[in-house]
Amino acid sequence: MRLRPAIDLIHQVGVIPEGDIIDLGCGNGAVGEALAERFDGHKLIGVDSSEAMLVKASETRNYDDLVHADITHYQPSKPPAVIFSNAALNWLPDHETLMPMIAGQLAEGGVLAVQMPGQHDGPSHALARSVAVEMFPDRFADGGWNADVLDPADYYRILSPHGDVTAWETSYLQPLAPAEGHPVRHFTQSTYLRPIMAKMDETEQADYLQRYEAALHSAYPLADDGSAMFTFRRVFFVLRR
User: Does this UniProt record's set of keywords contain Transferase (predicted)?
Assistant: First the structure.
């Protein structure tokens, strides 16, 4: 289910010119197989700032090349046919500047295809923030979480001067399997909670997770088998230069 948004985005790319396919923020290569299959005949290049993730991506054997680079400073050696990014650009700030910069790297007729979580105002994320502020009001007075993902209309406005843009959002219903503790907590702990919990020591983290889980039970009631239904909003856009 976690790959469903990426697969849906791939299907929206359409016809592309000659050139490489860039998996921007490729992580462990989770989307590499789908990209290699969809764009067979094109060189697939994975880019990520984590060497550990690139090692895992190399083990998939789906990439022709892997590049260790910060996304904000990465420059392809030649204009690519596609720049694809799945749940990576949401970690970076200033999308008003970032997205046009990335779009400008494309070949003529090339495509920028991006998917990002848009769950900032969903209960899973709003509760994570409210519990943190309640426990540590001074520590989180200035935030400490990522809120840089904009609405689809904003990406349409930002990118329309650079090509033909389609932008939309989709909320996916994702059943989460039973887990030790609340399933939604297990889902968010490896992603959205990381920068929040980084401001806590181990004892504080345990207390925080306990309080966060208690709050989740009202927003995401558990089924009899311990599973939970999770509604997760995603933001998409496709630009053809």
Answer: yes
H-assigned helices in the chain:
4-10, 32-38, 51-59, 95-103, 123-135, 152-159, 183-189, 193-197, 202-219
Here the tokens at position 208 are: 């925080």
Question: How far is residue 192's CA from residue 87's CA, in Å, rounded to a whole number?
Answer: 12
Find out if CATH 3.40.50.150 is the number for domain 4-19+79-240: yes
User: For every one of its 241 residues, what pLDDT tens digit does the chain have, with 9 covering 90 and above?
Assistant: 578 999 999 999 999 999 999 999 999 999 999 999 999 999 999 999 999 999 999 999 999 999 999 999 999 999 999 999 999 999 899 999 999 999 999 999 999 999 999 999 999 999 999 999 999 999 988 766 666 899 999 999 999 999 999 999 999 999 999 999 999 999 999 889 998 999 999 999 999 999 999 999 999 999 999 999 999 999 999 999 9
Return d(Cα 227, Cα 30) in angstroms, integer.
24
| Domain layout of the chain by residue ranges | 4-19+79-240
| Bridge partners of residue 230, in order along the sequence | 174
Angle ∠(122,156,170) on CA atoms, nearest 5: 35
- State both tokens at 241: 């230069």
Report whether 46 contacts 54 (CB < 8 A): yes
Handedness of CA 133, 136, 138, 139 (dihedral sign): negative
Taking alpha carbons only, the member of 4, 18, 6 closest to residue 88 is 6
Answer for the pair 25, 86: CB distance below 8 angstroms, yes or no: yes
